[in-house]
């Protein structure tokens, strides 16, 4: 069974390398993920405040922010308003369910070609 896990890990590592290579060839900046510094012994798991702070921190470091969907009036939409208030490009899928985000100023996203624009 360990061989299957090893094979799966190697597959995903190869996929990440290929994606990074493709993005670099197209001239895109790449941020695959970010693990923030440990919060210390006090915080054992993320709650709504630590999650909000983490999301805002990562968004502040990013050149562009992508949000798949945000319910109208929800916390994610409030986060998106904050990102747009910073003057950061916000991208979301071209879909009728995201009309509220597009009305706020989110850019339509349909694929990797949209990232460079």
Give a short synopsis of this structure.
With 117 residues, the protein is mainly alpha-helical. Helices cover 47% and strands 8% of the residues. It has two domains: 1-29; 31-114, Rossmann fold, CATH 3.40.50.
Describe the secondary-structure layout.
Elements: H1 2-25, H2 48-61, E1 65-66, H3 75-85, E2 90-93, H4 99-104, E3 107-109
Parallel strand pairs: 1-2, 2-3
How would you sum up this structure, described in words?
- This protein has 117 residues and is mostly helical.
- It has 2 domains: 29 residues; 84 residues, Rossmann fold.
- It is 47% helix and 8% strand.
- The chain has a 3-stranded parallel beta sheet with strand order 1-2-3.
- 9% of the residues are buried.
- About 8% of the residues have low confidence.
Across the major sheet, the strand order is 1-2-3
SSE arrangement, N to C: HHEHEHE
| Terminal residue distance | 44 Å
Q: Which residues sit in consecutive blocks of at least 5 with pLDDT less than 50?
A: 30-38
Q: What is the percent of helical residues?
A: 40-55%
Gyration radius (Cα, Å) is 17 Å
- Going by CATH, the architecture of the largest domain would be 3-Layer(aba) Sandwich
CATH topology of the largest domain: Rossmann fold
| CATH level 1 name of the largest domain | Alpha Beta
Strand residue percentage: 5-15%
Number of helices: 4
Number of domains: 2
| Sheet with most strands | 3 strands, parallel
Tell me, briefly, the overall form: extended
